[in-house]
Amino acid sequence: MPDKQKNTKLFLLLLVPIITLLAGCEFKDIDKNVFVSIIGIDKSDDEDKPYKITLKLYVPTSSFKQSPEPEYAYLSQNGETLSEAIRMLESYSDKELEFGHSKLIVIGEELLKEQKVSEILDFLLRRPDIQMISWIAVGRPSAEEIVKMVSQGENAAYPALFNYFEDIGTESQYIVTTFLFDFRRRLTEDGIDPVLPIIEGKKKKKHFEINKAYVLVNKKEPYELSSLYTQTFNILSMNASVADLSTKREGQQFVARIDSINSKFKVIVKKNNKIELDMDTSLVGYISESKNQLKTEDLSYYSRLFEAEGEKFFTDFLTEMMNIGADPLGFGVDYNSRILHNKRMSAEEWNEAYKNAEIKLKVHADLKSTGIIQ
Amino acid sequence: MSSMETIKWINEQLKPTNEFIQKNLDYENKHILLFYLKSVVDSDMLQNLIITPFFDMKSEEQLRLYVQALPQFQEVQSKEQIRQELLNGNVLAFIQDELYLLDFRLSNNDKVNQTNVETTIHGSQLALSDNLMTNINLIRTNYHQSSLSIEYLDKGEVNQQKVAIIYDQEKVKSDVLDIIRTRLQKVDKQVITSTTQLNNYLNDKKFSLFPQMIMTERPDRIIYNLAGGKVVLLVDGNPQAVATPVVFFDFMTTMEDNYHTVLISFFLRILRYAGLILSLLLPSLYVGATSYTPEVFRTELALTVAGSRVGVPFSSFIEVLFMLFFMELLLEASIRLPKAVSATATTVGGLILGTAVTEASLASNIMVIIVSAVAISTFVIPVNEMAFSIRVLRLLLILVTSLFGLAGLVLGFFALIMYLVNLDSFGEPYLKLYTVSKNKKRSEGKA
Questions:
Q1: What kind and span of H or E run contains B323?
Q2: Contact indicator for B86, B6 with CB cutoff of 8 Å
Q3: C-beta separation of B104 from B46 below 8 A
Q4: Which CATH number fits domain A238-374: 3.40.50.620, 3.10.105.10, 3.30.300.210, 3.40.50.300?
Q5: Which of B292, B302, B365 sits opposite A25 (nearest CB)?
Q6: pLDDT digits (tens, 9 = 90+) for B347-395
Q7: Is B434 inside any structural domain?
Q8: Could you give the CA distance from residue B447 to residue B438 in angstroms, rounded to a whole number?
Q9: Are residues B34 and B176 in the same domain?
Q10: Is the pLDDT score of B207 beyond 90?
Q11: Is the C or the N end of chain B the one with fewer CB within 10 Å?
Q12: How many CB atoms lie within 10 A of CB A160?
């Protein structure tokens, strides 16, 4: 027994110094960190240092009641690579830059057009403290402007921009929400193209406008979706949970508020590398505005009008996408998932087939009420 | 050995006690010798039951039969027994060359106390008394079962205190009972004054963090435990009983759980376990999250914490230990202080100190909130012994977390669970969830 005891003591004696040598995570008090809220990446004027990073930093306060005005600090630096720029930025700050709380990454419009997205993405993915669940968006005119703008009525400690993308804030049908992980998937995956929302900073009005989006098509200039197309994309991809759609047909003009959207699609392969895009959308809601007097008995008639209008909307959008060869909804992924790899068309064949695809669209509208109690 | 010799021996043995009284009554050819210790004998009883009848009796034979018929009558077995019983308050009577023991003990501690450790809103408000016999009487009057057995032992080499082992013969696990008996035999302490002492003496481990017996002052809890097949130990002069074997979850129940409706007691249980987890983990979570992984907070919270720590000179773990230290001091002080002063102590300590500490920025606001939350949630743990264990335990968790962050906390918690799983209470697994085994139809550990 004493031998065993001696061994235990020896073991502990050796273990304790070894443990102290172990470097675990680093102990750093929270007040020695500075939290980054938004990362902005731009193209700089400098040829040698093409990237310009702008960071929005939170200024910590002990009580938001005492200082309800939002306070931020900004850091900006050019660099040859993103890491280099951030390394320089760290020397500007007395505290450790902590990216764990940054929720939004804004890419400047110019930079986006230069086809450098995959380089940026590489940096964002490799850095461990940048969250994959951050949102990614395009800044117009530049990311720096968006990052440095504080909108009207913004609360302390919570940049207004976050509310646009988060589910708890506005639920606009025009806002596309793209997470970093999703963006990466869409960028690397064949058969689905990334969509990035465009944040426009209106300096004079002191507010942001987010109602357009970019579709990134492989090796091509990014295609800008208009507000209408952005909305259509949101509905078809079920990104939006509520939407207002107007109908103007057969002398009737009304707006329907859709609160339940369900959309399915399928690629049907036909002979000779022909495909058919089969879409099935169901919209349930009520009429929220009308020029004419509406009757409850005629609700099914209004629904049919609405269906026809919806079909036109959606077909327009799909045709446009097919013309430019963009596939934001992911028909290609659907095709790949259905067909065995040895029977698939080549990428060129697929692109060709997609461009000439037949659209078969079905909209089931169900308007439940005219919105008025009669 | 003849009776005369025994009396002589007793006389010698009890000579050092100057209260030893020898009374010789001799009247009309009746003769009786009485020996007793004045301070432990009820003199009224002695007067009414022995002395008055003595003068009324016709013959010595009648007197002898009368004494034998008294309910206080006890058979004499050995001279050592006589000595012990005399010290306990018996009267030794010598009639016709025979020795008789009569139990006339005087006890002033047989009043039943009010509950003050395990207070409840529903249920009985009365606790045990200081007197062993009264306590056993309480148990017997509430547990009408012929299988209820009580064994007596004298423990404590010097003070020879009476210890009672109480159990239901049909429900108790015999191996548990054997372990308790053998361990009780091995106890050789000079003085035994409390049942909770036995908790340490019957435990074969040198250092144990968790109690292996549950202390209670409520007769209803004792009854409940007896019915569940537990063994209850009582010590004379102590108003608390201990029951064993226990499982961890025994310490998280109150008797009131049975008195409430199902949903309410479910809610209260949830509340209690939340309190347990909170009081155990909150300080370490604070250290781990603020100093290693501020990402886990919501952004606003991270900023508030960071902002409130501005100007605090200490690292987060020093801050936590510092505030916990004062909280523990406060808790300890309010136990020792007389009731009238303890309210002032809590006000000064809790309110004034708390505000002053943040004003002087020795600790952050958030820290004060956390410490208060921890203090409150510690009180939610219904059995005091477990609350003490948790108080010690959370310091250990703070230590690992300060060294290794949240990963350390998880590991530390894991180690705690492993320790609990490894632990046993008198042969019964400590972290047993359901102690009701369907085939055996036992229900111990349900208290």
A1: helix B316-336
A2: no
A3: yes
A4: 3.30.300.210
A5: B292
A6: 777 778 888 888 888 888 888 889 889 988 988 888 888 999 999 999 9
A7: no
A8: 17
A9: no
A10: no
A11: N
A12: 18
* Domains of chain B: total: 3
B292 in any annotated domain: yes
pTM of structure: 0.78
**Is B80 found in the same domain as B40?**
yes
B176 inside domain: yes
Using only C-alpha atoms, what is the Rg of chain A? 26
Q: Are residues B266 and B397 in the same domain?
A: yes
Name A224's bridge partners.
A214
User: Which of A26, A30, A158 has its CB closest to that of B294?
Assistant: A30
Contact B304 A24 (CB under 8 A): no
Q: For B274-299, write each residue's pLDDT tens digit.
A: 999 999 999 999 999 888 888 888 88
A94 touches chain B (CB under 8 A): no
CB-closest option in B295, B316, B405 to A100? B295
Q: Do B302 and A129 touch (CB under 8 A)?
A: no
pLDDT in tens, A29-76: 888 888 898 999 998 888 888 889 999 988 877 666 676 777 888 988
d(Cα B297, Cα B153) in Å, to the nearest integer? 59
| Cβ–Cβ contact B333 with A under 8 A | no
Within 8 A by CB and 6+ apart from A12, the residues are none
Determine, yes or no, domain membership for B446. no
Q: In chain B, which among 345-374 make CB contacts under 8 A with chain A?
A: 364-365
C-alpha separations of A85 from A39, A81, A104 in Å? 12, 6, 18
Cβ contacts (< 8 Å) between A30 and chain B: which residues? 290-291, 294, 302, 305-306, 309, 316
Query: Which two three-digit tokens encode residue B416?
Result: 């705690």
Q: Note whether A103 contacts B: Cβ–Cβ < 8 A.
A: yes
CA distances from A153 to A102, A126, A158, B300 (A): 21, 35, 11, 17
* Alpha-carbon distances, residue A122 vs A83, A119, B96, B176 (angstroms): 11, 5, 110, 65
Q: Taking a C-beta distance cutoff of 8 angstroms, is the pair B133, B400 a contact? A: no
Query: E strands of B300-396, at which residues?
Result: none
Q: Which residue has the tokens 């109908």?
A: A247
Task: State whether residue B291 sits within 8 Å of chain A by CB.
Answer: yes
Predicted local confidence at residue A374, as pLDDT:
65
Residues of A in contact with B407 (CB under 8 A): 24-25
Domain co-membership, B271 together with B371: yes
Same-domain pairing of B222 and B203 = yes
C-beta of residue B242 within 8 angstroms of C-beta of residue B232: yes
Please state the domain extents for chain A. 30-225, 238-374
Yes or no, beta carbons of A30 and B305 under 8 Å apart: yes
Nearest-angstrom CA–CA distance, B97 and B32: 10
Give residue B96's domain range. Answer: 3-103
